[in-house]
Design a protein that fits this description.
There is one protein chain. The chain has six helices and five strands; from the N terminus they run ββαααααβαββ. The strands form two sheets. A three-stranded antiparallel β-sheet has the order 4-3-5, with helices on one face. Strands 1-2 form a two-stranded antiparallel sheet. It has 200 residues and is of the alpha+beta class. α1 (23-49) packs antiparallel against α2. Bound molecules: zinc ion (2 copies).
Length: 200
């Protein structure tokens, strides 16, 4: 993270200019992590389809990379790795547990020869977006401790799943009562639901 966290405003500052960094720029860092993760995960699937690693090794690598990216993104959400609390680690753990369960099913499908090479690579890559959820969860937890309110708005350009529509909050709502994008959602947070924060 090239930025410095300011706990008062719960925003990042550019280390050189001292200026506040736009929320969109923070999300960009998170998205970059997701993109790098996707490349790594697909890489493991490619090695698997080339017969260079076995399914168990593939799953171990997937799990390891997922864990690292979830933790990195949670750190960004919380304002730095030192800001991560047991609650944050608990939420990352729960999210990872869900992913590992999918990974288990993935391994079974692979063992039964149910997937084409391209299908396996695509499916491996699809795990990456889950790491964005850990950013939002940590951010919400952290802002919740200092009394933030939030709105969750639908992006007019995106298609929305039913859950996202029900999670929309047009009024300032105590952040603990707002659902972070990607949580319990069919779209997995790919819909670009927009968040605005405010301390009242
Ligand atoms: Zn959704
Ligand atoms: Zn959404």
């Amino acid at each position: 993270m090239p930025y410095q966290f300011d706990p008062q405003s719960h925003r990042y500052r550019d280390a050189e200019t001292g200026r506040f960094v736009k929320y969109a720029q923070v999300l960009e860092v998170v998205d970059q992590e997701v993109n790098r993760l996707e490349v790594r995960l697909k890489g493991h699937a490619r090695l698997l389809t080339q017969g260079k690693i076995h399914i168990a090794e593939f799953q171990t690598r997937m799990a390891q990379n997922l864990k690292e990216s979830h933790l990195r993104n949670a750190s960004i959400g919380a304002g730095g790795i030192k800001q991560l609390t047991p609650t944050d680690y608990g939420k990352v753990g729960a999210e990872l547990k869900k992913q590992y369960k999918f990974l288990n099913g993935f391994g079974q499908d692979l063992a039964e020869g149910k997937l084409t090479k391209e299908g396996a690579i695509r499916r491996a890559g699809s795990y990456a977006k889950s790491a964005k959820t850990s950013f939002f969860e940590a951010e919400f937890t952290s802002r919740g401790k200092v009394g933030f309110y939030a709105k969750r708005l639908l992006d007019a350009q995106s298609r929305h799943c039913q859950s996202c529509i029900s999670y929309q909050r047009l009024q300032w709502t105590l952040i603990q009562l707002v659902t972070p994008p990607g949580i319990d959602c069919e779209c997995g947070g790919r819909c670009r639901c927009r968040l605005v924060f405010r301390k009242l």
